[in-house]
Amino acid sequence: MAQRTTARHARNSSAAVIVFTAALAATACTGGSDKSGQPPPSAPPASTAPAGPGLSFTAAASSPVGDNPRAISAADFDGDGVLDLVTANLGPGDASVLFGDGQGGFREVTTIPAGPAALRNVTADVNADGFMDVVTINVSDETVTVQRGDGKGGFTEPTVHATGDGPSGVTAADFDGDGNLDLATANYDGDNVSVLLADGAGGFAAPVHLPAGNGPADIVAADFNGDGRIDLASGNHHSDDASILLGNGDGTFAPAVSAAAGNGPHGIVAADFDGDGNVDLATPDYEGDTVSVLLGDGEGGFAAPLVMPAGDGPTGIAAADLDGDGDIDLASANFESDDVSVFAGDGRGGFAAAIAVPAADGPIKIVAGDLDGDGKADLAVANSHDDNVVVLRNTTAGR
């Protein structure tokens, strides 16, 4: 595997890419950080009984995108009621927009500008015009670009805003309660997160940097303590934890508090996995080949992680009700084993053992959504070494 992984990393021709992928490259190519490394934190065993119908997926469509896609998000960009997809393409520093055909495939793929070494993206209506926009972080020049959608599938030229050192994740939410969506980035090299408050005129204020853990690889926004204010959580690759920053509701945040995660979290997602009304977290743990679930206590704290075996080198994660039983399930994109691990949730914070679904070469990020209009959440995977997106259609019976 070492030889194959080395060849993969050789494809990252931009030197700027190495800033963010240094830990991953050192692990796979030089043996600097053994993936078998430290054992995952102790945790109660995962559920062994499926929570709903047996999950089943099949590859339904594949589409070429730009060189080395490193992120994927979903939204309806052209107002036809069908979910579309967008990737951030590291090689050319652009984005590919895949317009859905409503049957799990794509009727058109277009390219829009992003920024140098486009690494991650998120979709949100940042200017409150009713149309979905694309926000992309660019690791080469440490910026975030905002491309505003026109509701017809077109986008404005991107506006560019400074972030922190080595941005590696981005999220959008209203942090100061003014009704405008703000931005926050996880900064892998700065060991911090940056908050960019919207100015109400379509722009953003200069970033405010807040200390986090060691090597924040991704970020998510949610209300973790039930006070009606938006909080932040980063998944920290090197410190094997999540940094929880509770929001004050005015755009400022309390100092970060650490919550233990798995070995080398490379992403993070928020959802209620145990049905108690509190927001929980889950991380894909690249070093440990696991997915970790951190159950929230509703006050901003989190229990010791439930650590579950996944595929080899999980780097992306999605949470959704995939089997239609009302409970949230999980899916991880596994960078090294070229597959997706799907975990059926039992609604009590436990999960069945993962099923493996083949993807393509180098699946790095994943998104869930109904792409074929049958009422079931499907999965779409950005494959960084095949330069494509693969749709895994949900064929679970009994829905």
From TrEMBL:
<dbReference type="InterPro" id="IPR013517">
    <property type="entry name" value="FG-GAP"/>
</dbReference>
<feature type="signal peptide">
    <location>
        <begin position="1"/>
        <end position="28"/>
    </location>
</feature>
<dbReference type="Pfam" id="PF13517">
    <property type="entry name" value="FG-GAP_3"/>
</dbReference>
<keyword id="KW-0732">Signal</keyword>
<protein>
    <submittedName>
        <fullName>Repeat domain-containing protein</fullName>
    </submittedName>
</protein>
<feature type="region of interest" description="Disordered">
    <location>
        <begin position="29"/>
        <end position="65"/>
    </location>
</feature>
<feature type="compositionally biased region" description="Low complexity">
    <location>
        <begin position="45"/>
        <end position="54"/>
    </location>
</feature>
<dbReference type="InterPro" id="IPR028994">
    <property type="entry name" value="Integrin_alpha_N"/>
</dbReference>
